[in-house]
Amino acid sequence: MRPLLAALMAAAIASAADPDRTARLLEELSNAFGPSGYEEDVRAIMRRELAPFSDSLETDGLGSLIAVSKKSPDAPRVMMAAHMDELGMIVRYITPEGYLKFVTLGGWLDQGLINQRYWVKTRKGPVLGVTGLKTPHVMTGDERTRLKLRDEIFIDIGAKSKADAEQRFGVRPGDPIAPDSKFTTMGDGSLYLGKAWDDRVGCAVIVEVMRKLKSSPANVNVYAVATVQEEIGLRGAQTSSHLVKPDIGISLESGVASDYPGIRQEEAQERLGAGASMFLHDSSMIPTLSFRDFVIDLAKARAIPLQFNVLSGYGEDGAEMQKSYSGIPAVNITVPTRYLHNHNGIIARSDFDHVVNLVTALIQQLDKPTIDKLKRFN
Ligand SMILES: [Zn+2]
Q1: Which of the following is catalytic: 27, 208, 230, 316?
Q2: Does residue 230 sit in helix, strand or coil?
Q3: How far apart are CA 211 and CA 204, in angstroms?
Q4: Which pLDDT score, from 0 to 100, does residue 14 have?
Q5: Which sign does the torsion angle of CA 24, 27, 30, 32 carry?
Q6: How far apart, in whole angstroms, are the C-alpha atoms of residue 226 and residue 240?
Q7: Measured in angstroms, how far is the CA atom of residue 120 from the centroid of ligand 1?
Q8: In the beta sheet, which residues pair with residue 128?
Q9: 205-214: buried (b, 16+ CB within 10 Å) or exposed (e) per residue?
């Protein structure tokens, strides 16, 4: 390695080695293994982090974690939700040669799956694998330009045969698989590169908001919910909303940044470093208009930068809260994220801090008369 490069890398590692508590939490959550339906590692982190700020902690029947900070029995119930699951796969079967075929969990692009490292969680522990891709040396012209489809892709764990994969590595059909992608800071240190910001960044927001509410309590009962199985159909938000019976809902998500080449404003409008963001439309939800305007006015009054996103696709837990029972006010507030649903995404620390401040202020502003007003239609 060249001396200058070595010095630069040492400096980068040193700055990454002394992050603050929030950065360490974001790092731990980003690195954690937890594809949809297999969120146990993330749930353990969330349980540990939320316990000091909660009067009770419970799980629903699907595995969503519900931490409650109680004001009084008849105070309104404010639910904030972020999902613990990330995109991943499940082992479908093992080929006679010992390669793993899989089914995907969540909205992967086929080209995002190829020639990447993954962890397979087996009964004998984690096993590193790579999605092998034939070398271009032996490809015809046609083959070089053709996209590989997910059914053609396999994971190579270095097994010698099906029996070797089963016996030495402990692989079984149904074992979960998640990307291997380590957190690091980048740029001037204020950008965080890692996997699974969708939606570990929302999980971290929940923890930091609960921390702030501990020293400056709200006038409502706060339900901090870390949901499961969002990426495969908002399943945990549905069951946890049923348990919580919220009066109002705040979904916390990774947003869709559009500040890089090849993505158009017609597709998304958030930018990294431009503050918190709120969705005004996605394919699962339109924010409740009274609540939307309440958030906009509050951000303005507190001088918290707030941007907006109008998306055609995307689904989020806010939709399940909003549709629970006879319907409640709900919004989706986001930390802008580049390249989500891939092995590597980028967030800006300043945006994260703005979201924490906005959501904390929002919950502190909510009380029974305010929520009643937000629920009223002409
Ligand atoms: Zn998400």
Answers
A1: 230
A2: coil
A3: 11
A4: 46
A5: negative
A6: 9
A7: 22
A8: 119
A9: bbbbbbbbbe
pLDDT confidence of residue 213: 97
User: How far, in Å, is the centroid of ligand 1 from the Cα of 287?
Assistant: 16
Phi, psi of 221, rounded to the nearest 5 degrees = -85, 120
| Residue spans of the chain under pLDDT 70 | 1-19
Q: Where are the alpha helices (DSSP H) in the chain?
A: 3-17, 21-31, 40-50, 110-113, 141-145, 162-167, 197-215, 235-244, 289-301, 318-322, 349-365, 368-375
Residues with CB under 5 A from ligand 1 (ion): 198-199, 253
* 294, 306 Cβ separation under 8 angstroms: no
Are 231 and 313 in a shared domain? yes
Verify that 71 and 143 share a domain, yes or no: no
Are 207 and 310 found together in one domain? Answer: yes
- Known catalytic residue at 320: no
* Residue 165: other Cβ atoms inside 10 A: 25
Range of the domain at 124: 88-179
Using the mean position of ligand 1's atoms as its centre, give its distance from the Cα of residue 299 in Å: 23
Q: How far is the CA of 160 from the centre of ligand 1 (A)?
A: 37
For 71, counting Cβ atoms within 10 Å of its Cβ (0-12 exposed, 13-18 middle, 19+ buried), the class is middle
* Pairing outcome for strands 176-179 and 117-122: antiparallel
- List pLDDT tens digits, range 144-180: 888 888 889 999 999 999 999 999 999 999 999 999 9
**Does 257 lie in the same domain as 155?**
no
Nearest CA to 231 among 266, 202, 209? 202
CA of 84 to the centre of ligand 1 (A): 9
- 3-state DSSP call for residue 224? strand
